[in-house]
C-alpha cells in the first residue's frame, strides 16, 4: 500500500533499530528508509542482517547491519557507537528486538522467564541508556534544536491477561513503564521524546505464527477481531512514522495500540 506520508518526512535522520532485520522491525526499517532516513539494524543472526541490508539497499536506502545481542551491554555500546561512526550521528532508536514462546506458567523455568525479560525489557533499557548521549540535541553531528526520538515496541498482552504468555506480558509491561518514565525524565532534561507502539495480531510475523492458530487468522467473522482482520506490518510502520516525524512532536510517553481495537474486544454474544 502506498504511504500517505511525504517521502522526505524523515529526510536526513539516522535510525538504529534492534530487531530491525526481520518482522515488524524490518518493515519499520524499510518505511523509515523510504521516507528519507539512513538505517542501521542490529541483530543476532548475520544471515538475517545481511539479507535485510541487501533488501534495503536494493530500494536505494542507505543501510548497514551490526551483529549484536541486546542482552550484552558491550554489544549495545559497540553497535550504538558503530552507528554514530558510520552515519555521523543518531536521531532515532527503535527497540524492536524480542523473544517469545508459548508456555504455561507451570512449565516455564525461571531462566525462561528471565531470558525474555532480559531480551525485551533489560535490552530495551540498555539500548536507551547507551544511546542517550547521542540523542541529546547538542550531541556530535546532531546540532539540532530538538532532542532525538525513541520508539519501544511492546504489545497489548498485559492490558488484561494472556494464556501462556506470563513472561512476555511481564516483559512488555516493563517496556511500557520504561517508555513512560524515560519520556518524563529525558523529555524534561533533554527534549528527547520516548513513545511506544503496542501491536496486536499482525500478519506475516513470528509473533503471530508462534502465538495464534491459523484458524483464528483465517476466520474473518471472528468476533475477537473488531475490524474483522489481522493487521499488516505496514500499519505498525505508518504509526511509527507518525510518532517519529514532526507530526508527532507533542506526543511523548504515549503507547499507541495498533491492534484494530482487539484488546478491548469480547465475543459478540
Ligand atoms: C519453554 C523455553 C522455550 C519454550 C526456551 N525456553 N524456549 N521454555 N518453552 N519453547 C527456555 C529454555 O528452556 C531456557 O531455560 C531459557 O528459555 C533460555 O533458552 P535458550 O534457548 O537458551 O535461549 P536463547 O537461545 O537465548 O533463545 C531466546 C529465545 C528464542 C527467546 C528462547 O526463542 C529466540 O531467540 N527467539 C527468536 C526471537 C523471537 O522469539 N522472536 C519472536 C518475537 S514475537 P532453562 O531453564 O531450560 O535454562 C514477539 C511478539 C510478542 O515478541 C507479542 C505478541 C502479541
How would you describe this structure to a colleague?
The chain contains eight helices and seven strands, in the order E-H-E-H-E-H-E-H-E-H-E-H-H-H-E. With 269 residues, it is α/β, with parallel strands linked by helices. Strands 3-2-1-4-5-6-7 form a seven-stranded parallel β-sheet, with helices on both faces. Strand 1 (14-18), helix 1 (23-34) and strand 2 (38-43) form a beta-alpha-beta unit. Helix 1 crosses helix 8 (233-244), helix 3 runs parallel beside helix 4 and helix 4 (110-135) packs parallel to helix 5 (166-190). It is globular, with a radius of gyration of 18 Å. The mean pLDDT is 94. The structure holds hexanoyl-coenzyme A (HXC).
Largest sheet, in brief, is:
7 strands, parallel
Number of helices: 8
Residue ranges: pLDDT <50 for 5 or more in a row?
none
The ordered H/E elements are EHEHEHEHEHEHHHE
Rounded mean pLDDT score? 94
> How far do the termini sit from each other?
34 Å
Tell me the strand order in the biggest sheet. 3-2-1-4-5-6-7
Q: Name the beta content range.
A: 5-15%
Hetero ligands: hexanoyl-coenzyme A
User: Which structural class best describes the helix and strand composition?
Assistant: alpha/beta
Q: Tell me, briefly, the overall form.
A: globular
Radius of gyration: 18 Å
Helix content: 40-55%
Number of strands: 7
